[in-house]
Amino acid sequence: MRKTEQAVERCKTMSTLQKILGGKWKLEILYYIAFHDIRRFGALRRQLGEITESSLTKQLRELEADGFLVRHDFHEVPPRVEYTLTELGRSFMDVIAYMKTWGDENLPENK
Amino acid sequence: MRKTEQAVERCKTMSTLQKILGGKWKLEILYYIAFHDIRRFGALRRQLGEITESSLTKQLRELEADGFLVRHDFHEVPPRVEYTLTELGRSFMDVIAYMKTWGDENLPENK
């Protein structure tokens, strides 16, 4: 067996990134909040199309728990709730932008 | 309603990236193949720890179908199957590296 086939130490950063971004919608949710200023629950849901209400709620709660988003409840009737990026979330915009540039240039669908 | 709350055109690149990377293990699988030259099914499974055999099979097949990996079957007994990056997969290494640097610097676990 080649030496390289021995298990290496698990990379904690990659493991955390995987946990944070592994959700079915998280990258796209962060992208629309970050780059298109789409903040409201209903607007995010319309933007993503096929997502269910419970799925969007779950993903937003996880992104909030992971420190990427903050939830603002304006205590209005009808309810008005908005999501904005935290400082961590804003710093992640660079990663999304880098990834999008790569995708625009390399993914077959865009060629 | 603010103007920005209108739905914008769905970004195809982000939607594709989300589909490709949304799997529970894909980032980590690509990371270990790309940066630690871990190629064999069994070695990947040991590396990822909690992943089931059927889950790893599924994720590898999807990464192959999406053009990131190529599967080499050496037709040996016992079976020897290795996965390596395609040109597209190699080009994605930059994105993984960029993301990892961001994570090392920004994720609370690493501070």
UniProtKB/TrEMBL annotation, chains A, B:
Keywords: DNA-binding, Transcription, Transcription regulation. PANTHER family: TRANSCRIPTIONAL REGULATOR, TRANSCRIPTIONAL REGULATOR, MARR FAMILY. The keyword Transcription regulation applies. This is Transcriptional regulator. SUPFAM superfamilies: Winged helix' DNA-binding domain. The keyword Cell wall biogenesis/degradation does not apply. It comes from the Bacteria. Gene3D superfamilies: Winged helix-like DNA-binding domain superfamily/Winged helix DNA-binding domain. GO terms for molecular function: DNA binding. Pfam families: HxlR (PF01638). It comes from Acutalibacter muris. Residues 11-111 form the HTH hxlR-type domain.
